[in-house]
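In the previous chapter we treated chains in isolation. Here, by contrast, the input contains two separate entities that must be folded as one system, with a combined length of 554 residues.
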Amino acid sequence: MKRAIILGSCILVWLTVVECSYSQSSLRIYGYGDLIFRDVFEREFPNTATIDEPKTFSLLRTHFLVSATPINRWRMFVNLRFKNAADLTEGRLKGEIELFEGWFQYTHSRAFNVRGGRFLSPFGYFNEIHVASPAYNTVVLPLMFEDDFIRTAGGTIIPPNSNLQVFGDHRRGHFKIGYSLYIGNGTAPDEIAQANRDNLNFDVNDNKGTGFRLALDPTDNLGGGLSLYSEKGVFNVVPQMQLRADTDGDGVPDTPIVPVPLPQEVEEERKTVGLDFRFTPGDFELRGEFIKSFIDITGADYDKTFYFVNLNYTFEERFTPYFELNVYRDPTHFVFRSELRRFTLGAAFRPNGFVTLKAEFHNHTFGDVDEGEDFAQFVTRQPASNFKSFQMFWTGVSFFFN
Amino acid sequence: MTSILLALLFIQLTLAIGPAAGQVAIIVNKEAAVRDITKDELKSVYFGELQQWKDGDEIVLTDRKDNDVIAMKFYDDFLGRNQRKVRKLWLRKVLRGEIRPPESFNTDGGIIKFVAENKEAIGFVSAASVKNSVRVLSVNGKNPGNRAYELK
């Protein structure tokens, strides 16, 4: 009996301690996901007939987020991503949990904050909402921030591995000015390989990045930013995107649509400048971003340009039709023939604060094969794509849970 | 005589409901160190930019589930941004880990109870429903009932 009382008391004390620590740390768990349906319903090739692709229905992403304030002025944040990934060695899908973000932040004041850990570089508007699909109107985020696109096109984003950021802002009336200083440790081309790790299992690599961002909001409905970044190191770049080529039983493409060259490790220096803006008069919203990367690879210089604009209008706080234009120019990208343009027309409906239903039509067109001397040189080494254009229809449900 | 009594009753009721009727009160916990808040500070707090009280405690936001008259007065008229836009802003910040999700309530009573129990919380309710369990902040140095009080 005595033992039971002691045990009961212990449990009570333990529960109290747990409850106290839970309450004091302001621990919150929440998250979001995207359920999508995709139909590629027309592909046009210059030398073959139109080819249909199977319709696709999948859970695009699921994220669980944990936010805590263990002690005053300190914030901790963890963003776990759950996904299905193709295991090519075993020829099956396997579940993966990835630490997408994980950082600590110390807030001294509004004007001075320090954040360290794994997080996306504070580069422009779309890095800010990169993980925030429920907060954005379209089913598919702008091209540059799709995983495949970053991987294959090289992107302009320092890998969110080990970063340090100092940032803050100052507001006076409607006017707000903010700054961000950033140092990124980068990632070795093969971050998992032991060859890239020292005795203490640290990822040792020469890839380093520094950046600066200045944000200005002259009024509540007008704002923008200027970002400057510099990266240097060895990058693992797949020089083109594999776009679901039809394959035979052995996994070998049986159409000449998309040849798949091996990833290349290239040493390069990259300087990037970005401009972003938002203008929200009444229920209209206009957002956009322009990014240009100047890339210096030994023996070759070229630049990549990306921009998008999104115009939308919200009726009765629920229904939002939108138009978006994405343009990506890359002289080394032979599938895109140096340029990809994506026009998007769609609408989003929010029945409540937790769910957004979306549907959109995409039309992709590609650059002229004759454009660009660099590209012409490139295709002498690699087979060219036969893509001319294709259209896609997407529907999606973004859900936020709290 | 009856009409005089009725008139007195009407005046008394008017005075009782009085200046606070239809006004919005900003409330915090009684232990909170703050007594006055400016319009700019309130904007910063509700736009997720100012996240800590002066003593370093994290500010815990509360919100109303329905976009009722009080919410419209607070968001549209006072902060200059409607509730949907503010919620969209929150969602973006919440998903990036910048702020914790605000606590939502159906009624003034729910907000008042939560604020009374949480030292870091702030909320806005109808001034007529305020109880002694919470502290009403003056806004730009003016209290609800004052002619120059802006949240009405």
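The first helix of chain A runs from residue 2 to 25. Residues 197 and 204 of chain A are 6 Å apart (CA to CA). Compare these points with the single-chain example from earlier in the chapter.
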